[in-house]
Amino acid sequence: MAFELFSGTSTVDSGNLAFIGAIDFDELRYISSLAEKLNSDFIAQFSVYFDDIEISLSDCQAAYPSLVESMTAELNEEERNSLNRIVAVVNYALYHKHNLYGFAD
Questions:
Q1: Nearest CA-CA partner of 87 in 64, 103, 69
Q2: Per-residue pLDDT tens for 38-58?
Q3: Helix H or strand E encompassing 47
Q4: What top-level class would CATH report for the domain 2-104?
Q5: 83 CB-near residues (< 8 Å, 6+ apart)
């Protein structure tokens, strides 16, 4: 089971959604730990595994600077991998000026 991440302008037309990654169930504990360590509500959204999420472009823009700054934090390997994945999907959404969506599989 995976939490699939997409970038797009709307869920109404699924043809505009681009698949950009997935979070496996086993990774949830690392994302939760990361969100707690960094005190980040933004990152915590990715640990809500059984609910679909929509993160607006403006929320991605607001969170991006702190996500990038967090890349120098002392993290264990799993937390760092989770942060890198989140930075990558947010960066993709920002580059394309899209919202970010997460769908429980």
A1: 64
A2: 999 999 999 876 789 999 999
A3: none
A4: alpha beta
A5: 34, 43, 67, 70, 71, 73, 75
Q: Tell which residue, 78, 90, 98, has the closest CA to residue 45.
A: 90
Structure tokens at 45: 């959204």
DSSP 1: -
The predicted structure's pLDDT at residue 16: 83
DSSP code, position 32: H
> At 70, which amino acid appears?
S
Q: Where are the domains of the chain?
A: 2-104
Residue 21 — φ and ψ, nearest 5°? 165, 175
Alpha-carbon dihedral of residues 77, 27, 83, 95, nearest 10 degrees? 140
Could you give the CA distance from residue 95 to residue 75 in angstroms, rounded to a whole number?
26
Pick the range with the lowest mean pLDDT from 46-50, 70-74, 85-89, 98-102. 46-50
